[in-house]
Design brief:
126 residues, mainly beta, 7-stranded mixed sheet, 4-stranded antiparallel sheet, 11 strands, globular
Length: 126
């Protein structure tokens, strides 16, 4: 049974930092690309970042470039999202997801990912 478990969310003031972690089990971790998505109340789930199987390539949505960093440790079956200079508009539930290698045209879509975590709440106060 595949499980993705996020942790590290919480309440932080604007300008602060959080580091999200997502621990995976039940899958060959190094064979999957990993992604982070977020969903704010009343909004659709949106792509935040992606890292390829080896970690050689990373991708970000424009609004987080320069502030967020995705990384992975294949020995620990864990993917991370370091979030710096947080803004109130970053407030959302953050989800990690695992999926096979895919076309660059669809990696920002939820359908590119097979497995999902339960999410962790990030709240940024102004």
């Amino acid at each position: 049974q595949v499980q993705l478990v996020e942790s590290g969310g919480g309440l932080v003031q604007a300008g602060g930092s959080l580091r999200l972690s997502c621990a995976a089990s039940g899958l060959t971790f190094s064979s999957y690309a990993l992604g982070w998505f977020r969903q704010a109340p009343g909004k659709e789930r949106e792509f935040v970042s992606r890292i390829t199987q080896s970690g050689a390539a990373t991708y970000y949505t424009d609004s987080v470039k320069g502030r967020f960093t995705i990384s992975r440790d294949n020995a620990k079956n864990t993917v991370y999202l370091q979030m710096n200079t947080l803004k109130p508009e970053d407030t959302a539930v953050y989800y990690c997801a695992a999926g096979p290698p895919t076309l660059t045209s669809i990696y920002k879509t939820t359908r590119a990912y097979t497995y999902w975590g339960q999410g962790t709440q990030v709240t940024v106060s102004s």
